[in-house]
Amino acid sequence: MAMAETESERRRVIVRNILSKEECEELELIHKSCSTVGYRPNVFSTTLSHLIATNSSHFIIPFVPIRERLKEKVEEFFGCEFELVIEFTGLISWARGASIGWHCDDNRPYLKQRHFTDVAMYTADSRNVHSVDEVTHGERLTLTLWFSRDSSHDEDAKLISILSQKLLHRSDKVPQLCLPLPASSNMYWFSPNQASPDELGCNICWARMNVLGYDIYYSQNTSSALDCSELLLEPLQLARGDDLFHQPFANILHALQVVQFFHWKASEFPTSKFETEASKVLHLSQSQKENIRNLKSVFVKNNQLAETVFRPVIINEKEQQSFSWANFSAAVTAWEDYIRKLHKQLLNSLPHWRTHQSIFSCPLDESLEGT
């Protein structure tokens, strides 16, 4: 009879179907709505601390049950129940040209607290050296968690502390519409040439919308002399073809989140048989089109780069052809409802998280149901 594996012999396991299709799509929405340039060329990342910093803390909620399931699986397989803390949670995407050579996940002195990595689950040490082949097209999105036995590296405690400072000192406790706030412009500037980033790069927020058919319009009072960092914070409108959508957005990140939400949920908005009301959509004038062209040069220095890196591998032609501003307008309202729901869950959960110094799924307080 074969001897049972010891913990030291249990090096890796692949856990299948641990995420539903809906969960995968929601994580993709969050990443495409919030990501910044990553730690390696052609890599983009979304961390939970960054979500908090950009006033998008509510997006932590979809991660919570997934983190719980993954942690339980790791502890079960490696026989270390109640020993682990989550050291890091993040969405990392690898675009065309991205790769990383053979390595283990604790390959630096400051990473030795990492003991286990995500699905596939494996020990983070030299027994599991691995690599990522160069991505040739599309975007390879991974949900990465690292687990540690060292409680001083507990991600939960750090996140709860930051969340408490931002949310619990507010004068009102009624869930408000949380509008995102962009980080510094360099965090959104992507360039394949790190030596001369300004000459060849593009703003990833603009690029992700542009490949879906949208342009950005700032009012005539917004000077093209403004640099990218200033423009990121300015109110704007979306244009598509010759149309200008009437509703302003607080900033570029607000517009990006609504656009990505619309394309995530597009099938749920039935195609309207009627033209959008004239008050909802304006026809772009020549001066407005010129404004769009002039400001575009601020956001992109290499249009082909944006197309190559961010254009979806599979284009939904039917969705593109059936686009209507009426449906998009409905999506704006649906996005607001979605954000309020997540924010309500966050406000409900945070007191419990503070008490236990751990992030976990909490039942919704009935007193918040009607708010």
Which features characterize this protein?
371 residues; alpha+beta; 7-stranded antiparallel beta sheet; 4-stranded antiparallel beta sheet; 37% helix; Procollagen-proline 3-dioxygenase
Please, could you describe this protein's structure?
This is Procollagen-proline 3-dioxygenase. The chain has 371 residues and is of the alpha+beta class. 37% of the residues lie in helices and 15% in strands. The protein is built from 12 helices and 15 strands. It has a 7-stranded antiparallel β-sheet with strand order 1-7-6-9-4-3-2. Helix 1 (21-34) runs antiparallel to helix 8, helix 4 (155-167) crosses helix 12 and helix 8 crosses helix 12 (325-356). The longest helix has 32 residues, at 325-356. It is globular, with a radius of gyration of 22 Å. The N and C termini lie far apart (61 Å).
Quick structural overview:
This is Procollagen-proline 3-dioxygenase. The chain has 371 residues and is α+β, with helices and mostly antiparallel strands.
Secondary structure tally: strands: 15
The topology string of helices and strands comes to EHEEHHEEEEEEHEHEHEHEEHEHHHH
Helix content: 25-40%
Q: Between the first and last Cα atoms, what is the distance in angstroms?
A: 61 Å
Radius of gyration: 22 Å
Question: Topology of this structure?
Answer:
Layout: E1 12-13, H1 21-34, E2 36-37, E3 43-47, H2 48-53, H3 63-78, E4 85-94, E5 100-103, E6 116-117, E7 121-123, E8 130-132, E9 140-148, H4 155-167, E10 189-190, H5 197-200, E11 202-203, H6 204-210, E12 215-217, H7 228-231, E13 237-240, E14 243-245, H8 252-264, E15 281-283, H9 286-299, H10 303-310, H11 317-321, H12 325-356
Helix pairs in contact: 1-8, 4-12, 6-8, 8-12
Organism: Citrus sinensis
Protein name: Procollagen-proline 3-dioxygenase
